[in-house]
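Subject: for your reference before the review

Hello V.,

The reviewers asked for a structural picture of the protein, and I figured it would be easier to keep everything in one thread rather than splitting it across files. Below is the amino acid sequence we used in the manuscript, unchanged from the supplementary table.
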Amino acid sequence: MWFKALLAAMAVLLSGGAVQAQGARPAAPAAPAASGQIDLNSASRDDLMTLDGIGEVRADAIIRARPFKAKTELVERRLIPEALYEKIADKVMARPVPAAPTPRPAQPAPKRT
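And here is what came back from the structure prediction:
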């Protein structure tokens, strides 16, 4: 549950909306991308379930299989059959996940004489 609240808060901040007062009802989940496609890497379970043929079980499987480099991985990883993919392919996308910064190696402390 906290994850959905975090996503909703991030959506409000990224959309330029005002931050709600503490205790206020959380903002609605982020809408699909401007292109009308659902991002497989960030869509909520409910958003995925709006796709024809995607129910609770498949939505959960998609979420567990994240991240995706390409939407074709839905079929390659056998999450959905190819016939279903052909029905939803124009409604989904796999936006690249931002890379985590690589940690810098620790520098040795200067030697004291």
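For the response letter, the relevant points are probably these. The chain has five helices and two strands. The helical segments are 2-14, 45-48, 56-64, 73-76, 82-88.

Happy to draft the paragraph if you're swamped.

O.
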